[in-house]
Amino acid sequence: MPSPARRTLSLFFHCLVERKQATQYSSQRIQDDWWTYKDSVQGSFVPGPGFWGLVNSAWSLCAAGKRQSPVNIETGRMIFDPFLTPMRVNLGGNKVSGTMYNTGKYVALRLDKEHLVNVSGGPMAYSHRLEEMRLHFGSNDVRGSEHLLNGQAFPGELQLIHYNQELYSNVTEASHNPSGLIIISIFVKISERPNLFLKRLLNRDTITRITYKNDAYLLHDLPLSSLYPDTQSYITYDGSLTTPPCHETTTWVIMNKPVYITRVQIHSLRLLSQNQPSQIFHSMSDNVRPTKPLGNRCIRTNINFSTPSKDCPNKKPRKLQYRGAHGRQATLSALIHTFRTDVPLILRQTDTIACYLTLCVSKKSIWHCYLDGVFLALQIVLVVPGHSEEFNQRPLTFLPLVL
Asked: What residue ranges carry the coiled-coil annotation (predicted)?
């Protein structure tokens, strides 16, 4: 039996840990109040997106980052990647429970911890666990989505945030580290026939329970399986969180079909306040970050525009062309396939090498691009957790050809 002195010491350290955790939580809550989607003065200045990277040094990527989100998706710049496999969703059951929040910034749904929902496949090398859903929407029907499609916004955008559960223990740790997050984004449109899952979230009895900031409401038996659009087609690119601290650790997957809500439901969303009851009412609508430059990033897709598909929003078949001699597209596909054989895990976890190879073959020889890609892979393997050991143990098939 422990001595009184040991019990006292144990209690002391337990209190220190609790105090530290409470301080961290309080600090996070305070920092959450440091930013908004719309510049406003409510007794003090609250910085909008243009100032996020200036008010807090920990948020510097919001201003200086080169791989920021959201972006404007130009379909003419999309690259068809035949090696993007369909995504797999493991719901862990037909129904889930969770708590819906008015965060003052967006509507959030956080699933109960016992409901394990995983996604894998697609551009992912690891299994990712669903942590939270966020709903963005506009004050009218011509805006509301954070991502744009050929410069066009949608009335809303639903973002499903998943963290890499194989490398990291929680979403906070994952958001700070490479290969940390996968966000599945689904555009929201207006229709008389709403999505069954969103119907449960946005009916009048439910949505009025979270009218003001910090309101929360527990929901049971949500039909999560009805949320995902009936399509295996998607667009993907590497980017960042669209909220501070804007860490560039996110792979975005944008589904090729929207989900639908009614006009009554989106009107109910626009009546949600970003403030508490004692403060002046300000609608939560237009809770979007402006788009950021795509830069040298690639937007890949598993939609083959050379083959007509029911999933394609434009029924006219399109064929993506690259600069260079005739037959470069076939050579590019063969090059990427060969490269995947040598370093498969690296190429599945990021589109950096695939993007480089695509741009390289239009200007240089195939083998020149191949060797450049190898050196790029070696650089990636030094900073991505879990890759170094596998890379070192795997023989590279190109070495006999080079030597």
From this structure: none
DSSP 311-379: T-SS-S------SSSTTHHHHHHHHHHHHHHHSHHHHHH-SHHHHHHHHHTTTS-HHHHHHHHHHHHHH
Q: How many Cα neighbours within 13 Å face the side chain of 3?
A: 3
Q: Is the peptide bond before 317 cis (omega within 30 degrees of 0)?
A: no
25 assigned to active site? no
Provide the token pair at 7: 């019990």
Give dist(CA 104, CA 33) in Å, integer: 9
- Give the model confidence (pLDDT) of 66-88 as tens digits: 999 999 999 988 999 988 999 99
Catalytic residue selected from 101, 106, 168, 370: 168
Quickly tell me which residue has 């006219």 as its tokens: 316
pTM of the complete model: 0.74
All structural domains of the chain: 65-301 (3.10.200.10), 328-402 (no CATH)
In contact, 84 and 301? CB cutoff 8 Å: yes
Maximum distance among all Cα pairs of the chain, rounded to whole angstroms: 83
Q: Tally Cβ neighbours within 10 Å of residue 279.
A: 13
Summarised one tens digit per residue, pLDDT across range 293-322 is 999 899 999 998 776 555 444 444 333 333
- Cα–Cα distances in angstroms (integers) from residue 193 to residues 229, 260, 264, 347, in the given order: 14, 7, 12, 40
Q: Are 348 and 358 in contact (CB under 8 A)?
A: no
| Amino acid code (one letter) for 397 | T
